[in-house]
Structure formats: structure tokens, C-alpha cells
Amino acid sequence: MITQEADALIIGFGKGGKTLAPFLAKQGWRVIVVEQSPAMYGGTCINIGCIPTKSLVHGAEIAASRGYVEFAEKERAFEEAWRTKEELVSFLRGKNHDNVAGHPGIRLITGQASFVSPHEVIVTMQESEAITIRADRIFINTGAVPAMPAVEGDSRRLYNSTTLLGLNKLPRRMAIIGSGFIGLEFASMYANFGTEVTVIERGPELLKREDADVREAVRQALEALGVRFLFSSRVERIRDDASAAVLSIRDEAGDSRSLEADVVLFATGRQPNTASLALERAGVRVTEKGFIAVDDTLRTNVPHIWAIGDVNGGPQFTYISLDDYRIIRNHLFGDGSRSRQDRLHVPTSVFITPVFAKVGMTEEEAAKAGFRVKVAKLPLTASPRARILRQTTGFYKAVVDEETGRILGAALFGEEAGEIINAIALAMDTEQTHESLRDRIYTHPSMTETLNDLFAQL
Ligand SMILES: Cc1cc2nc3c(=O)[nH]c(=O)nc-3n(C[C@H](O)[C@H](O)[C@H](O)COP(=O)(O)OP(=O)(O)OC[C@H]3O[C@@H](n4cnc5c(N)ncnc54)[C@H](O)[C@@H]3O)c2cc1C
Ligand SMILES: NC(=O)c1ccc[n+]([C@@H]2O[C@H](COP(=O)([O-])OP(=O)(O)OC[C@H]3O[C@@H](n4cnc5c(N)ncnc54)[C@H](O)[C@@H]3O)[C@@H](O)[C@H]2O)c1
Q1: Which residues are CB-neighbours of 65 under 8 A, at least 6 positions away?
Q2: CA proximity to 164, closest of 250, 336, 49
Q3: Nearest alpha carbon, ligand 2 atom 10
Q4: Which ligand minimizes its atom distance to the CA of 292?
Q5: Rounded alpha-carbon distances, angstroms, from residue 4 to 1, 96, 124, 134, 343
Q6: Which of 18, 123, 148, 318 to mutate to test the pocket of ligand 1 (most atoms within 8 A of CB)?
Q7: Concatenated DSSP letters for 381-450?
Q8: Architecture per CATH, 2-145+271-342
């Protein structure tokens, strides 16, 4: 068997790993990256995550704006958006491949890696003999995969986010199990394309960590798109009849109902992708939920092995995997000061129509934490930019500490929320007061200038 030697082995072509590889190569290290599938060069985000979904979300908003009536027209619009998504993904996958494979200091190997010992990994490949890699340092960046709860029955209409992205026909009826990030984004997107969407959530409401006014506004906006929600409900059985999947659903009160769908999407969370790694042969410990256990500098219990991205328990976002890279870089070549604990205010965005983005504490959380809270909330009907764009649904809301004037959190629901939230997170990280955002000069007409009026309310 062939044996390769490396200073650094990166298992998985994820965001953190693909950024770490050229950095280490530039330091003169011999770097090997192993990716199990040629369809995954660039990792989840590029191929089956952020990029294809947001491309379709955009395509769906264009389709909705055209006001199609006939289902055949909606189907054509979906197929056009689907092709555009495929082209974008294939372009980015190629670019990602070339950035790594074309780098003189990196060797990209396509095959599945499993540990043989703490310093050794075997890579099995489809068309050639397996190889062994011996590496001084190993970085595990294998991501996460959809978690599918066991549901009784047998249906050929079950999908997860990955398999659904491969379906190029618009379903008339879709059932989505789970109302987290993936459930809500797919619900909004397919409703915009013209699919009848029903979301079944075991919890009593969506976005359960948000304030009641925020939850209510998001639910209402999605319902206005045509999404139906069944909360406190569980799918007990799914079977196929001649033309549809039939879901048997039971709610908390014990009432049952049945629902027909052409497609059933499981959006019930993602679990660590470690099944093929044989971690026990390297002595790497995992948490109760199966994520690779790391300290705040992302080192596992085996000192020369690190874990980056979703596989270390997250949070599961591309920008967190990228920040994991920064922490590792800082410990290998910097002053060793970085840690997961120093991430101050991490913003998130759910790409529904319109976008919901948040950072920091909710009003309720801030009050519970003992702050004297002031709340600013501005409907987007007050924004000239939103009026120009004819996108006045939603509001910007911010929670401020009365004593210091510092911003404790924000929930932005509406046009450009996913952009403006980054400005608020920056203001929070740099400990600016709400007055400083209120009195800043912003371009006009822009959504950012909404912050002048939002904070003027206080
Ligand atoms: C539908 C969807 C939409 C999303 N949208 C967003 C979004 O809008 N914004 C956002 O920030 N995040 C989003 N996410 C989350 C984001 O995609 C992930 O957090 C991020 O991609 C995780 O990257 P990673 O670095 O952990 O590794 P990944 O990108 O998951 O890469 C892991 C790689 O390892 C490979 N691999 C696994 N096991 C082995 C092995 N044994 N040997 C070799 N290779 C292996 C896999 O094939 C894969 O390519 C979304 C996720 C999904 C599923
Ligand atoms: N825009 C973004 O940044 C973005 C987009 C998509 C995904 N992601 C990342 O991917 C992760 C995974 O997304 P996700 O939506 O799969 O997970 P999630 O954890 O966000 O949501 C899962 C939802 O499914 C519900 N659920 C679980 N089991 C159920 C069952 N049996 N019946 C009914 N409901 C059930 C849960 O109560 C929860 O509401 C996210 O947490 C996020 O980190 C991010």
C-alpha cells in the first residue's frame, strides 16, 4: 500500500479546512486535503447548503413577483431557477477545486478517510488502491448530515435538504417536518414558487427563542405567502397511495389528521458526519450527541488533532467554520489569544421572504438578565428605501440597556435585514451606544438610514 507523508492532513473540504490548507501551505507545510466526493469539492455550503438554497430563494422571489397564475408557468419558472442554481454551484465547485488542487503546496485526494491510528489515516478510493497518510497534525472538517427521525411507514417521497435540491420538478404539495432554519427557508421558497406548503413542527411555535411580537410577525408573513403551520404536532406514519404520500399526524391534544403531499422534506436538524472516521482508533473523544469534543481552541483530547466546523458541535454556520480556522491559525502561528469564548455577538439570518436576522439578546432575555431595557421598533413602512423597493413588510427592532445606552440585541425582519444586522453586530462588538448609531451619517435612500429613525425613538 502507498504511504504519503504530510505535515498537515485536512479531512473534509469544508469552509475552515479549505481556508486553512493554503495558509499552512504558504508557511511551507506539506498539506494533504482528503474529500470523499467530487460532488462536494468546496463542501456543504457551496454544493448542498447556503449557495444553492439562497440562489433558489432569490429565483423564487423573482418568480413570485411575476404573479403567475397557471401551475405550468410556475413550473417553468422553478425549472429556470433550478438550472441557474446548478450553473452557479458547478462554477463555484470548479473554482473551489482549482484553488486547492492547483495550489503547489497542497495535494487533494478524493476518497474517504478513516483513522488507523492517531497519526495515520487510510483513504479508500473508488477507482484506485487505498492509500495511507501519515501526518504530524490532523484537522477534521467533515461537517454534518441531515438527522432523520424514525417515522413508521414506507414512502418513496421522502427527502432531506440535500436530495430535495436535486429535484428539478416543482411539487404541487409539500409537507415539511421541522420549522428551524432549513424548514422555514424551504417553506418560504417553495411557497413563493407556488407549491402548497404545510410545516409540521413538534414544538408549540416557530423561532421559539424570539420575542412574541417577532414570532407572530414572521408566522403571519409566511402564512400570507400561503404556508400552513401545524404546531405541537408529530408525524406518526407516512405511506404512499397511488398519487401522494399520506402523512398521519397527531397533535398534543391527541387529535389526528391526515395530510397528502407530493414531497415530504425532513428538516429536523443535522448530526455530525463522523460515521466513516473510526475516531476510536485515534482515541478521539466525542460528546453525548456525537460531536467531536474540543476545547475552546478547537483541539481534541488528542493534542495533534483538531476539529473544525459543524463536526465540533457548531454553531452550524459557514462563518463559524471560517472563524474556527482563524482560531487555529492564531494558535499555530499567532499569539495564541483566540478562543471560541471571544466571539462576541454572532448574527444569524433566516433567508425567508422577507429575511429575518438577529443578533444578541431578545427583549425578554435582556429583561430576565436584569437589564433595564428600552425597546426601539420601527415598521418598514417608515423607510423610503423600503417604499421604493415596494418591500414594506416587517420592522427593525432593537433592545438597549437604559443605563449605558449600549445595544443588547436586535431583531430585524424585512428588506436587507441580513446586511444591516452585520452593522449592528459591529456596533455591539465595539461597544457603541445607540446614540452613536442614531446620529451617524448614512447614505440615502438606504435601509441603513432606518437606524437613524429607529434609535431616534429612544
Ligand atoms: C440547506 C442548508 C442551507 C444552509 N444555509 C446556510 C446559510 O445560508 N448560511 C450559513 O452560514 N450556513 C448555512 N448552512 C450551514 C453551513 O452549510 C454549514 O454550517 C457549513 O457548510 C459547515 O461547513 P464545515 O466546514 O463544517 O464542513 P462542510 O462544508 O460540511 O464539509 C465537510 C466535507 O467533509 C467531507 N467528508 C465527510 N466525511 C469525510 C471522510 N471520512 N473523508 C473525506 N471527506 C469527508 C464531506 O463530503 C464534505 O464535503 C446551511 C446548511 C444547509 C444544509
Ligand atoms: N440561513 C442560515 O444560516 C442557515 C440555513 C439553513 C441551515 N442552517 C444551519 O443548519 C442547521 C440545521 O438546520 P435545521 O433546520 O435542519 O435544524 P434546526 O435545528 O434549525 O431545526 C430543526 C427543527 O425541527 C424540529 N423537529 C425536530 N424533530 C422533529 C420531529 N420529529 N417532528 C417535528 N419537528 C421536529 C425542531 O423542533 C426544530 O424546530 C441550522 O441549525 C443552522 O445552523 C443555517
Answers
A1: none
A2: 49
A3: 316
A4: 1
A5: 10, 23, 14, 6, 37
A6: 318
A7: GG-HHHHHHT----EEEEEEETTT-BEEEEEEESTTHHHHHHHHHHHHHTT-BHHHHHT----SS-STTH
A8: 3-Layer(bba) Sandwich (3.50)
Ligand located closest to 165 CA: 1
Identify the nearest ligand to the CA of 56 by its number. 1
Do the first three CATH levels of 2-145+271-342 and 152-268 match, i.e. the same topology? yes
**Of 442, 439, 455, which is closest to residue 377 (Cα–Cα)?**
455
Average pLDDT, the chain: 97
Can you tell me the distance from the alpha carbon of 393 to that of 223, in angstroms, rounded to the nearest whole number?
13
Q: Does residue 317 have its Cβ closer than 6 Å to ligand 2?
A: yes
User: Considering only CA atoms, which residue is closest to atom 8 of ligand 1?
Assistant: 50
CB distance 51 to ligand 2 below 6 Å = no
| pLDDT tens digits, one per residue of 81-131 | 999 999 999 999 999 999 999 999 999 999 999 999 999 999 999 888 999
State which ligand 2 atom lies nearest to the alpha carbon of 184.
15
396 with 380: CB under 8 angstroms? yes
In this structure, what are the phi and psi dihedrals at residue 181, rounded to the nearest 5 degrees? Answer: -55, -50
Q: Is the CB of 203 under 6 A from ligand 2?
A: yes
CA of 192 to the centre of ligand 2 (A): 20
Q: How many helices (H) and strands (E) does the chain have?
A: 13, 23
What residues are annotated to the active site?
444
Q: Which fold has domain 348-456?
A: Enolase-like; domain 1 (3.30.390)
Domain ranges of the chain: 2-145+271-342, 152-268, 348-456
Q: How far is the CA of 177 from the centre of ligand 1 (A)?
A: 21
Residue 167 banded pLDDT, cuts 50, 70, 90: very high
Q: Determine whether the shortest distance from the Cβ of 178 to ligand 2 is under 6 A.
A: yes
Q: To which H or E segment does residue 33 belong? A: strand 31-35
Q: Does domain 152-268 have CATH number 3.40.50.300?
A: no
How far does the centroid of ligand 2 lie from the alpha carbon of residue 160, in Å? 11
Q: Would the pTM count as exceeding 0.95?
A: yes
Q: Which letter, b or e, does each residue of 123-150 get, where b requires 16 or more Cβ atoms within 10 Å of its Cβ?
A: beeeeeeebebebebbbbbbbbbbbeee
Per-residue pLDDT band at 154 (split at 50, 70, 90): confident
**ipTM tops the 0.90 cut:** yes
Question: How much distance in Å is there from the Cα of 58 to the middle of ligand 2?
Answer: 21
Q: How far is CA 275 from the centre of its chain?
A: 21
